[in-house]
Design goal:
With 193 residues, this protein is mainly α. The chain has 8 helices and no strands.
Length: 193
């Protein structure tokens, strides 16, 4: 069975089960006592992200791990904000989203069998995300990990990029030359002559 049919089968079965549970709880309210849905609303967002993860693993669609990690990560931020009342933290908490993409990239490549390249790419995104979180959080009211010394992170990041650029001189931008295809008239002339 190909991956498209398998993913459709898994998604379809999941929708039938969830829909059946909700329909049964409508007609038989006492059934709702067995599975209470009294969660805080951000847990639903996290649950949707986890469903994406399960689908990416079971349905053979590894690309679903990236949106799953983004959704679950944003749900986690919302859960923190909802329980703590610290909604102003969104001013710097959004910088964690590239890290969520990095986590999804690691899982996607793990499911595809390309673990080491995916790990390298994912850790790069997670590191960038944590760096931005520390910098933005330091001057926007977040955790003051470095206090007044947060510009040191900017300096270190700049030095790292300069050194990396100097050590890898052969990895500049790639230019791809596209050859034009001959017109139909040119082909006809070649056949005639």
């Amino acid at each position: 069975m190909d991956t498209q049919r398998r993913s459709n089968l898994v998604v379809g079965l999941l929708l039938v089960i969830i829909g059946g549970l909700f329909l049964a709880s409508r007609f038989f309210p006492q059934l709702g006592q067995f599975f209470t849905l009294d969660f805080d609303w951000p847990l639903y967002v996290i649950g949707v992200g986890l469903i994406f993860f399960v689908l990416s693993a079971l349905a053979g669609a590894p690309g679903l791990a990236i949106p799953g990690s983004i959704i679950a990560g944003i749900g986690s931020i919302l859960y923190y904000q909802n329980t703590s009342g610290d909604f102003a933290s969104w001013a710097y908490a959004w910088t964690l989203i590239p890290g969520f993409v990095g986590i999804g990239t690691i899982f996607t490549n793990l499911f595809e069998g390309n673990f080491l390249p995916g790990l390298r790419e994912g850790l790069r995104l997670i590191g960038l995300s944590l760096l931005m979180f520390a910098i933005f959080g330091a001057f926007l009211g977040g955790p003051a990990l470095l206090g007044d010394y947060w510009p040191v992170l900017l300096i270190l990041a700049g030095v790292w990029m300069v050194v990396r650029g100097l050590l890898r001189p052969g990895r500049g931008p790639r230019v791809e030359v596209i050859q034009p295809k001959p017109d139909a008239d040119d082909e006809a002339e070649e056949i005639v002559s």
